[in-house]
Amino acid sequence: MSAVQPPIRPRTRSLISLVVVAGAVAAMSACVFGFRGEVEFADEANLVGLDTVQLQLPATELVVTGEGARTFLDWQGSWVSLGGTGNDAVTSARKASLIWETWGAVGRLSAELPVEIRDITSLDHLDVQTAGYMAHEIIGTGDVFVSGIDAYVSVDLDGGSVEILGGTEQLRISTARGDVQLSTSAAVNVYSGIGTVTVNAEAGRDLIIDTVGTVTVNLADVDDLDLDIEGAGEIVVQLDTAKHVGAGSYRRAIGAATHTVQIRSGGGGVELGMLVLPEP
Amino acid sequence: MLASAIAWTLLFAPPDAVPPASGPVSAAEPPASADDSAAVSEPPTLLPPGTLVLAPALAGPYQLFDTEGLPVGAPITVGEGAKPPELQLPPGVYYLHGPAAVDPVVVASGLRLVWDGERVLPVEVWAAAQEARAQEARAQEARVAAELERAQQVPPPSAPAPTWRAWASPLASTLVPGVGQVLNGQGYKGTGLLFGTVGTTIAAAALFRLGNDGTRPLPAEYARLIGYGVFSSAAPLLWIYAITDAYRVATNKEVEPKLDHQLRLSVTRMMTVGFRADTRRPGFYDDWSVSLMGQATRRLSVGVSDLSVKPGGSTGPQVWQLGARLDYRVFDRKRLWIDLAAGSILQVAANGGRAPLDPDAARPRRTTKFGAVPYAQLDLRYFVLDRVSLDLTPRVAIPLTTRYYSANRALPRYAAELELGVSLSTYF
Q1: In this complex, which of A23, A89, A110 lies closest to B354 when CB atoms are compared?
Q2: Which of A65, A212, B8, B226 has a CA that sits 20 to 30 A from residue B375's CA?
Q3: For chain B, which domains are there?
């Protein structure tokens, strides 16, 4: 083992250099060669007799639009899958599907992905037209935009931003990471692991907000509030019924204090202002 | 030798020289006594005598004879290291009987010649040769003396280091990379390892936390993922190097890779960066695994490789992975080994399927899929201890079925992959 080894010959040295350079080039070009295949789809389902619609989806960009008296749920979107060849990618995308099921008054739209394509296929986008009077529960990952739904809306995301326009009953949003923007008359319960939250409250309802980031709340009705702000950075309150500038926490009851405004911003700034509603 | 003697004779003897008679011989030093001079008969010619210096390497008694076999003068004893005797002789050819052999010698009129035991040559040539030999001997002595002095100045390579360092240095580098090197007196190296390890760790963490919300340009996102892969691999490698190097230096040992090992255990992280179905979010694909390779012959190893389990979480498939590999070492010089290997990963993916909405309905049966990923790879192994190496492994693979990585990532069949692996290997 410890015997003196003969010197490396020039040819051997060249071979070693070649091998090392080849290895370095391969290392620098760690990559994958393949194709994407896309398949579009559209379908519908009957909503008669149902009360709640669940959308349990893989990661996607989801747009949900409510219309007052619809009796059908329509959806359109596209699947994208990967393959070593173009045909293989399209074949994989065709194996994916959305399944509509009902049980009692609950209907659910969810994805069916065979195990061999599960981690190489994504729902590129999905547009859903639904009934505005029905409760909706959305579970998934990715950005969600909801409009025109008056009833209860729940959004539960592993990550992604949420924007909701409308709503009169209750909005419950939970996202691991993402911004939340709401313009609603409904009661609001928002949690975001990290992200900004903006709420335009068009009516006097309870607002509970928990995030790590900046919070902006614009209120239309400010005569009956229980303000409870904690863990904030800078606090700016410019309501018709209360003015305040500070940091950390702020607690104040206005009027009968029946509508709770509870904000936890994890060190982010909090700004409360007046919402100017357009003339009817 | 005889030819050279005759040539000298012809060169120096006068044309009319005659062979010497069995005549007188006289030593130049000490000078012949008056009685001796009287006993010597006159030479038959008037040619002046020549001088022959006897300087053989072999000491002992010598006797000179003329061409007729008659002794010339008394026996002469040549002593070792003594001044060589000089004989005054009539020109001619003589035979010198020594302790080992009989040699012909030539005496030329009026010349001083030397017999050095092998040949007769002018005394100036002999003296110059003697001087050259003496100079060479002196130079050799000087070289030996210098070598001896150098050897006394350089401490022996295996001088034992303090025993506490053998465990304290690697322990210190385990707790804080580079501190073991500082204990060993390698301050610059220790500082470099400390900053290198901490820096790559922070860089990897920062790049990981950057995340991807889908708004970052694709080149920047690819750069982030590649950077994350490089830094998150470099950090543990530097740390392991700091620990093993601290031990090696503390014990003052040279690294001699274990060529005749029987078993190699490797922990490997293979990784690549590539596309995903989501066009805005490329993927970082990595796969931690364990390999157990047995050395069948001096250069050939075979064994089970790529052993790992991927839990899959709540939505992804659960994957069990194993493989087989053949590995041939094409180069092993000092601390660097280069292996060429080929093998195949085998994957078993199982998934329970989507739970039905109806809570009373039966859950779909568990589906199981088998997969294979043949590959070829290059192993560059750098030994940090006799039985420990850090490896860099570029690999090319073509999955025959969907290939699953950790974190619910997968690549499709037939999609060629270039991967980079880093490993820690131990040899038994």
Answers
A1: A110
A2: B226
A3: 2-128 (2.60.40), 156-254 (no CATH), 260-428 (2.40.160.20)
